[in-house]
Amino acid sequence: MHETACDTSAQLLDQVRAALDSGIHLDIRGGQSKTWLGRAVEGQVLDTRAHQGIVNYDPTELIITARAGTPLRVLEATLAEYGQCLPCEPPHHGPGATVGGMVAAGLSGPRRPWAGSVRDFVLGTRVINGHAQHLRFGAEVMKNVAGYDVSRLMAGSFGCLGLITEVSLKVLPKPRAVANLRLEVDLPGAMQRLAEWGRQPLPISAACHDGSALHLRLEGGEGSVHAARDRLGCETVEPGFWEGLKEHRLAFFADPRPLWRLSVPAIAAPLDLPGEQLVDWGGAQRWLKSDAEPQRIRHVVGQAGGHATCFSGGDSPFHPLPEGLLRYHRQLKTRLDPQGIFNPGRLYKEL
C-alpha cells in the first residue's frame, strides 16, 4: 500500500505565520479519528493530511521517517512488507488515522507494558513552533536549548505545543511466532497468576481479563512460544480479540454508558466502582463503563495511585493536574507557543 508523497510544510508554515500575525487560534486536524478525546477547540482548521509520504525507511537500521499526514495504515503496510511493525500497537480508531495524530494522541495498544509506549519509539521530529520556526529535534540533529526532549514531549501533547510535520520512529521485526490463549478464571485468580508468571521467563506480550476469562498473547521465537503455551495449559483461541480490544470493537465498548480509562499500578486491588470493568495491560489499564460521577471515579482511582481519563468527552476529560505540575505545563506551553495559538484548551482549559 503506497500513497502520493507531498511536502506541504511551506504552506503549513505560512498558515502558522498568518495566525500569529492576526492573533487567531489554530485547530490542528489530521484524519479526525480521535477528535472525541479531549476538549473542543475553537479556531481556524489547520489540516495536515496533504502533508504526507514516507521520507526515509531503512529496514536494516529499523528506522522509518514519515510526514505527519501520512495515513497510519500506509506506514504499517510499508513496515509489513519487510516483516516489521510498530511495537506499541497504536490504535487507529478510524480509517483516517495519521502518523502525526498517532504521536499527538500518544495512545498505545495491548503490548505497551511489555514493549513500550509511542513515546518510547519516537527518535526525532520536525515541528513548527509558536515562533513560526520549522525546527528539527531529536537524535538526528540537535537538542532543544530549553533542555527538553521536545520530540518525546510531542507524544500525548494533542497538538498543544506545536505542529508536528515529520516523525522518525524506531521499529522492530514482527514476532516469529504468536499464540493466543484463554483461561476461565475470575479476576483475583487472574491477577495472582499474572504476578506469578511475571517472575518467570515467559514471552507474554498482552494480558487482559474480560470479566470472566483471562486472555493472553505469547510472542517470540517458535520454541519459546510453543514451550510457554504447553506450560500454561490454556485454551488456544483465534487472534481477533486483541484487534477488537485495541480498536474498541469488543462488545464491552458497545455499552452506551460513558467510557473511562483508568491508569493504576498493575498490582492495585479491584476498584470499588459501579459499572463494568475490563482489565488490560496485566492490570495497569482498566476500562470502565459507568454512570458514576466523575469526582467519585477520580477519587477512587487517585486513592489507588492512578488517574482517570474520560473517553466520552466532557469539559474535563483528563485527570486534573496538581498545581505544581500545571505550573510546569504552563511554562512549557509559554516557551514553545507563547501566543497560545495551537489547540488552546484541548488538554486543559488553562492551556
Automatic annotation (TrEMBL):
Record EC number: 1.1.99.14
Q: Name one Pfam family in it.
A: FAD_binding_4
- SUPFAM superfamilies in the cross-refs: FAD-binding/transporter-associated domain-like, FAD-linked oxidases, C-terminal domain
Q: Please give the superkingdom of this protein's source.
A: Bacteria
Q: Which ranges of the sequence are coiled-coil?
A: none
Give an example GO molecular function.
glycolate dehydrogenase activity
Key word Oxidoreductase present: yes
Look up keyword Ion transport and say if it applies: no
List the keywords (alphabetical). Answer: FAD, Flavoprotein, Oxidoreductase
Q: Which residue intervals define the domain FAD-binding PCMH-type in the entry?
A: 1-174
This protein is called: Glycolate oxidase subunit GlcE
* Organism, scientific name: Pseudomonas vanderleydeniana
Gene that codes for this?
A: glcE
